[in-house]
Structures are given as C-alpha cells and as structure tokens.
Amino acid sequence: MGQGFFVTGTDTGVGKTLVACALLRAFAGAGKSAVGMKPVAAGREGTGWADAEALASAGTVRPPSRIANPYAFEPAIAPHIAAQLAGIEIDIEMIGRAYEELSRLAEVVVVEGAGGFLVPLNERQTGADLAIRLGLPVVLVVGMRLGCLNHALLTRRQIEACGLRCAGWVANCFLPDMPCLDGNIRALEQRLACPLLGVVPFRRDPVPAGIAPFLSLGLLVEAAA
Ligand SMILES: Nc1ncnc2c1ncn2[C@@H]1O[C@H](COP(=O)(O)OP(=O)(O)OP(=O)(O)O)[C@@H](O)[C@H]1O
Ligand SMILES: [Mg+2]
Q1: What is the CATH number of the domain that holds 110?
Q2: Mean pLDDT by 10 residues, the chain (225 residues)
Q3: Is the CB of 32 under 6 A from ligand 1?
Q4: How many domains, in total, are found in the chain?
Q5: pTM of the model
C-alpha cells in the first residue's frame, strides 16, 4: 500500500486544487508515481469538472474517472444538496473502495476534499467522515485572508477531534496583497502544532509545477510517518 494524503482547506476556493496538484508535481519530481482523486466534485464548467481535470493532468497516472471522481454533479452547490437533486446519496464506503483501487495504480494518492472540512456529504456524514474512512494524514490549505486565523484553528481542532494526523499546513497567499501577511502566518505557526509545509506566493496565473518548489515534501513525509 502506498502513501496517501487528504487535502482540506479553510473554505471553498482557497487553493486546495492548486496545492494538491503542486504536491502531485512535487512527488513526480521526486521520482514517485502519483495520482489525484476528487471524490466529490460539484460544478461542471464547459466540458468537465475543472478540479478533476487539473488533478488528472498533474499526476503521473491518468486514472479512470469512475474511481478518481466517483461523484460529479453539474451545479456548483453544496454536495449533499447536489446529490439530493440528482436523486442519489453519497456513499462514503463506495469512495473508500474507489480509493483502494486507485492506490494500486500509484505510489502516492492525493485526495482533494470538497469545500471545507465539515461540509455535509449526506444526511448524516461530512467531509470529516470521509477523511476518517480513508484514514489519511491531512494537509490543511489556509487561504490567507482576513478571517483565516479562526477558520484555520477551527479546522485544525476538528482534524484533531477526528483522531487524524495533521501532516502540515500550507499558507496560500491567494490574494494580491493581504495586510499583515507575515504576522498572520506567524500567528498560525505558533498555534497550529503541525509543520508549515510552505508559503505559496500570489501568482497571476498559478501553475502546479511553478508552485511545487514552494512545498516541502520532506517535512510532509516526515510528519505523516
Ligand atoms: N497562490 C495563488 N495565487 C493566485 N491565485 C491563486 C492562488 N491560489 C489559488 N489561486 C486561484 O484561486 C482560485 C481557487 O483556487 P482552487 O481552485 O485551487 O481552490 P479550491 O480550494 O480547490 O476550490 P474548491 O473548493 O472549488 O475546490 C483559482 O482560480 C486559483 O487559480
Ligand atoms: Mg478545488
């Protein structure tokens, strides 16, 4: 069995896909086979699902979407509502089996969660239950903006409460300028009790290969062990 990571974030739209893809590129650069998974995608754009496509392109293996993206919904709305509208229920056990299949295709699997950590997936379960089922160390992407300290600390606490390891966090500077950025990063370094894997700078047109050098795989692998 290879290695897996569960990428969560402080919110939707904070850079989970960018960081997950950069991690895939970094593992590829380190000579590992790597594959991405987006178990629940909501929001079809043009011909497909942007996150699923980005993850498939960033990995070294192009996985069948049946296992890499078991649930893909047209509207960009909360997953459990999208599922209801489609007349189905998201089944975490099914995602778990897809993950196991995927993990036989590559040495490293990077799973991108939907939205934030506690996003509901069905009537009873949330993204946290999915992370627990997969049993993976979690990477927390913090979108650096006003309000992120609270979101980051709440998410960190919830990861802990689930009995999961937080293998590190990433400070993603996704706004062109955030006041007191350094002070905010320092505040989280002092309080998150897991390694800062990297500070990703603002880029007008960020590409995973360009972001990979800002992330420390060494720290990640060590913290996940
Ligand atoms: N460091 C950065 N610099 C500039 N733009 C960024 C940066 N990080 C992310 N973005 C942009 O912000 C947007 C959201 O990023 P991304 O899609 O990775 O977020 P996400 O957390 O995966 O969102 P979702 O919850 O929809 O899956 C994208 O347009 C992305 O290119
Ligand atoms: Mg995404």
Answers
A1: 3.40.50.300
A2: 92 98 98 98 91 97 96 96 98 98 98 98 98 98 98 98 98 96 98 98 97 97 91
A3: no
A4: 1
A5: 0.98
